[in-house]
Design a protein that fits this description.
The complex is a heterodimer of chains A (275) and B (315). Chain A is an all-alpha fold and 275 residues long. Chain A contains 11 helices and no strands. At the A-B interface, helix 1, helix 3, helix 4, helix 5 and helix 6 of A face helix 1, helix 2, helix 4, helix 5 and helix 6 of B.
């Protein structure tokens, strides 16, 4: 029968796509496995494969390194403050854009997406030369300013999608029942957008924690974890320790991304669909 | 809403009530209050910096003193269009184009399988498998390739196991794309770029494919098209805006990257490295600014074309 034959070749097509997809996904993930493997190698002068032996030594070596702890702490602080700032700015922008139509509304999205759409090197050098022009010394805060700037769009996208789903009728009902604007925000709007906000914040945290390009331009003497890693990449000193740090970085960024995914997985716009 | 709202109207109008009533009557004021902080932040800090940077590309550096002369001139742009600098621009743009092509070829089957065949748990798993690398550490992922591509690493080892070291050597001996080892060759750099930006290609294609209604495919086969023909004449044209949307990312990100060419690849510069070098060691901010105009202009042209192809609906 004709339909059977069609079914058959459709199946054959599916098999090819399945193989292609599987190979593609392997390509995306196998390199990470090597990082983990190399964190246990006994050999520290080259990247010899297969590793001559396996050891847990490097984890304790890394644990005792104060420069790594300092870099890690700095990165967490920067990511937390940047994500917090981005959550406020992104939510405000999303609230405004979703509520009403106004002149220039379309350009807001463009403006917010620009820092992430333009190459990081452009954003970085623009900020650096601007800080130089107005004589702001590079510090912790210049890094935060840079990071918050490109994190806003992440929160904005998540919050905007949720705002669009939340009908205006709920807000009107709350007002009709006598709540004022602040009470409505606290009891109606916030519970509705909370998970989207948190998801956006988580992604912003991961984005900032990991950022290196803009950071190299906006940092003074500060060494964030990515900057520490970059210097190890260019001039390797203790390779296995870098591998251990890499494993830690993978873990630290995976957690917020997974949380963001689970927070929004049952909605029509899942967090992280676009960066 | 599951919880009951406990809202007690205070006897006299409280401050918060008065403020909210005031704002309710003036939606434009409320809108301005909402918009002001993000607009100020991005407008002043970001757009301001960007304009200041672009303005500096119209200054030039005094060749003898090395000090930036604050006079409007096109000298810096003349310098930008010199042979050596055009070489950098062409090299970067070709790499971006090849990476984009490669990402589309590898990304399509994944996106297609996710959109058409996978469902339920498989689909969620695949989605996570694509999204995690997208958001997770860029540097760590570049670093992984340093391990893989190094002379004593897994690729060299595999070729050795199969007694095919000569084959690897032959590939490395190829002009232009070869090199002393994979980690200093353009092949290596291509692989790393491909690996890093691939998720950016998959997700827009998947989004475009999800929107192809199954009834359309049924119609195509009812009208006598074989699956192959349906694929070429119906699915691919409808997925094309998604591919273009994905290519915006892969192209732009490769164009501006300066970390990967610095870690993997030869000493020949890419645009990002040129920007970094001219603003740092060389102290030639005008030329660095002019160089950073290049990716902006290329992307502006690219986006205009992409918009015409309807790529923005697939984002």
């Amino acid at each position: 029968m004709r339909s059977n034959k069609k079914q058959g070749s459709r199946e054959a097509g599916a098999r090819w796509f399945k193989v292609g997809a599987a190979l593609g996904l392997l390509f995306l993930h196998i390199p990470m496995a090597f990082i983990i493997l190399y964190a246990f190698t006994t050999e520290d002068k080259s990247y010899e494969f297969p590793p001559p032996g396996l050891t847990l030594k490097w984890f304790s070596v890394a644990w005792q390194r104060e420069d790594i702890w300092a870099a890690m702490l700095l990165s967490v602080k920067i990511a937390a403050i940047s994500a917090g700032t981005a959550m406020i700015l992104g939510t405000l922008a999303a609230a405004a854009v979703s509520r009403s139509r106004f002149f220039g509304r379309e350009s807001i999205s463009l403006l917010l997406i620009l820092p992430i759409a333009l190459p990081g090197v452009v954003t970085g050098i623009a900020l650096r030369s601007a800080f130089n022009i107005v004589d702001i010394p590079f510090s912790f805060w210049t890094i935060v300013i840079g990071h918050a700037t490109f994190c806003v769009v992440v929160v904005y996208n998540n919050a905007l999608a949720r705002f669009r789903r939340t009908g205006a009728s709920q807000i009107e009902a709350s007002m009709d029942l006598g709540a004022d604007g602040f009470q409505t925000f606290r009891h109606v709007i916030l519970p509705n957008i909370a998970t989207a906000l948190l998801a956006g914040g988580m992604l912003a945290f991961a984005l900032s924690f990991d950022e290196v390009i803009v950071t190299t331009f906006t940092a003074g003497q500060q060494t964030t974890l990515p900057i520490w890693m970059l210097s190890e990449l260019i001039r390797p000193r203790q390779r296995p320790v870098t591998n251990v740090v890499a494993v830690v970085v993978i873990t630290v960024t995976f957690i917020p991304i997974l949380v963001a995914y689970y927070l929004t997985r049952n909605t029509d716009t899942v967090a992280g669909g676009g960066k | 809403m599951s919880e009951t709202l406990s809202i007690h109207t205070p006897p006299a109008a409280s401050y918060s009530r008065r403020i909210s009533a005031y704002l309710y009557g003036r939606p434009h004021l409320l809108l301005s209050i909402l918009l002001l902080p993000p607009l100020l932040w991005l407008g002043i800090i970001y757009v301001g910096s960007l304009i200041a940077l672009l303005a500096q590309s119209f200054f030039a550096i005094d060749e003898f003193s090395g000090i930036v002369v604050h006079e409007l001139t096109l000298d810096t742009y003349r310098q930008l269009f010199s042979f050596a600098n055009m070489d950098i621009i062409l090299r970067t743009a070709s790499m971006a184009a090849v990476v984009t092509l490669g990402a589309a070829l590898i990304g399509f089957p994944i996106a297609y399988y996710m959109a058409r065949y996978a469902s339920g748990k498989t689909k969620a798993f695949m989605y996570l498998a694509v999204m995690l690398p997208l958001w997770s550490s860029y540097l760590v992922r570049v670093y992984a390739w340093k391990l893989i591509l190094s002379k004593e690493g897994i690729i060299g080892w595999t070729f050795e196991q199969f007694g095919a070291t000569w084959l690897l050597q032959m590939i490395l001996d190829l002009p232009v794309i070869g090199g002393a080892s994979l980690s200093v060759s353009y092949i290596g750099m291509f692989l790393v770029f491909l690996y890093i930006w691939l998720p950016f290609m998959i997700l827009p294609i998947q989004a475009a494919l999800e929107r192809v209604p199954p009834s359309l495919l049924d119609a195509s086969s009812d009208l006598g098209a074989r699956p192959g023909m349906t694929f070429w004449k119906v699915i691919l044209p409808l997925a094309f805006p998604g591919i273009v949307a994905g290519s915006i990312f892969t192209f732009s990100l490769t164009l501006g990257d300066y970390i990967i060419p610095g870690i993997i690849g030869s000493s020949r510069l890419f645009i990002g490295q040129a920007v970094y070098m001219h603003q740092g060691v060389a102290g030639n901010i005008p030329l660095a600014a002019a160089f950073s105009v290049v990716p902006i202009v290329i992307m502006a042209i690219y986006l205009t074309i992409a918009k015409r192809m309807g790529a923005f609906n697939a984002l």
